[in-house]
TrEMBL record:
<dbReference type="GO" id="GO:0005886">
    <property type="term" value="C:plasma membrane"/>
</dbReference>
<feature type="transmembrane region" description="Helical">
    <location>
        <begin position="260"/>
        <end position="281"/>
    </location>
</feature>
<feature type="transmembrane region" description="Helical">
    <location>
        <begin position="89"/>
        <end position="114"/>
    </location>
</feature>
<dbReference type="InterPro" id="IPR000515">
    <property type="entry name" value="MetI-like"/>
</dbReference>
<dbReference type="Pfam" id="PF00528">
    <property type="entry name" value="BPD_transp_1"/>
</dbReference>
<protein>
    <submittedName>
        <fullName>Carbohydrate ABC transporter permease</fullName>
    </submittedName>
</protein>
<dbReference type="GO" id="GO:0055085">
    <property type="term" value="P:transmembrane transport"/>
</dbReference>
<keyword id="KW-0813">Transport</keyword>
<keyword id="KW-1003">Cell membrane</keyword>
<keyword id="KW-1133">Transmembrane helix</keyword>
<feature type="transmembrane region" description="Helical">
    <location>
        <begin position="161"/>
        <end position="181"/>
    </location>
</feature>
<dbReference type="InterPro" id="IPR035906">
    <property type="entry name" value="MetI-like_sf"/>
</dbReference>
<feature type="domain" description="ABC transmembrane type-1">
    <location>
        <begin position="90"/>
        <end position="281"/>
    </location>
</feature>
<comment type="similarity">
    <text>Belongs to the binding-protein-dependent transport system permease family.</text>
</comment>
<keyword id="KW-0472">Membrane</keyword>
<feature type="transmembrane region" description="Helical">
    <location>
        <begin position="30"/>
        <end position="51"/>
    </location>
</feature>
<keyword id="KW-0812">Transmembrane</keyword>
């Protein structure tokens, strides 16, 4: 009997496969992806166009700027490094932007720790002033800033650009780091106090290591803003020897504006390093901006 029942089982029985991921795609999601692809293409295409034309001669660009390069010409990049001295401009930008990043992280971190952990008279007023500082653009303060720098003899110097940039980025840095440090449990600091740690040890050995995402976010944004700050650099610095990369690019545009190959090569040399840094560190930006958004 059991043998007959075994033989009576359907031989062509097949299990139905799950179509989980396929069912998740909908018309709305496909439409959103199409919009994002079109948006990305409008951003990526100009960069590819500039990169392609940087390997062409000026006459070739004037005849057909949209054709793909067949035989790359390196003359534009050689001219940018030899005649334009872009290498020196890179060093100037790294000196300015690197110092600004260190200053913003140091002063912003200390101010954020005090505002997030200590209660004192006028704390709300100080915090409100920091938030209000985000509303003032650099254009509104450039006249008094330039006047003060000129009186103390800091124009045409790196420090004359570094100090205003540190002051201009502190409000953003404090806003980001206060939101993150406020989520750190107080029990960690209480345990450190029991072990005999003072405020500086608590800040350097507990707060800073835990707050690495917020510090990384502040450092990346500060570096990008300082590196791309043409307005302040062009007004404060007039000497060619200490001119940063963005100010040099503006000079190339005014003097060699018709040499489109040299212009494209110069733009690539300015943009690509920042783009590479952002692509490798974008996860820290997202983590630092979202980590302090929700408490608990």
């Amino acid at each position: 009997m059991a043998k007959d029942l075994a033989n009576s089982k359907p031989k062509n029985l097949k299990l139905k496969k799950s179509s989980g991921p396929i069912e998740q795609f909908s018309i709305g999601r496909i439409f959103i992806h199409i919009i994002l692809l079109l948006w990305a293409s409008t951003t990526i295409f100009p960069l590819i166009w500039v990169l392609n034309n940087s390997f062409k001669e000026r006459n070739t660009i004037l005849l057909d700027s949209f054709s793909l390069v067949k035989e790359p010409v390196w003359t534009n990049y050689i001219t940018a490094f030899t005649r334009m001295n872009i290498g020196r401009a890179y060093i100037n930008s790294l000196i300015i932007s690197g110092t600004v990043v260190v200053g913003v992280m140091l002063f912003g971190g200390l101010a954020s720790y005090i505002l997030s952990r200590y209660n004192f008279k006028g704390k709300l007023a100080v915090h409100s002033l920091v938030m209000a500082a985000l509303l003032f653009p650099a254009f509104a303060t450039i006249v008094p800033v330039f006047t003060m720098l000129n009186k103390v003899g800091l124009t045409n110097t790196h420090i004359g650009v570094i100090l205003p940039q540190i002051a201009g980025n502190l409000a953003f840095a404090i806003t980001i780091m206060v939101g993150f440090m406020s989520t750190i449990p107080l029990e960690l600091e209480e345990a450190a106090v029991v072990e005999g740690c003072g405020p500086w040890k608590i800040f350097s050995r507990i707060i800073v290591p835990i707050s690495k995402p917020s510090f990384a976010t502040v450092a990346i944004f500060t570096f990008l803003w300082s590196y791309n700050d043409l307005f302040l650099q062009k007004i404060i610095i007039r000497k060619k020897e200490i001119r940063p990369i963005c100010a040099l690019l503006d000079t190339i545009r005014s003097q060699y504006g018709t040499d489109y190959g040299l212009m494209c090569a110069s733009v690539i040399l300015v943009v690509v390093p920042v783009l590479i840094v952002y692509l490798f560190l974008q996860k820290y930006i997202i983590k630092g901006l979202t980590a302090g958004a929700v408490k608990g």
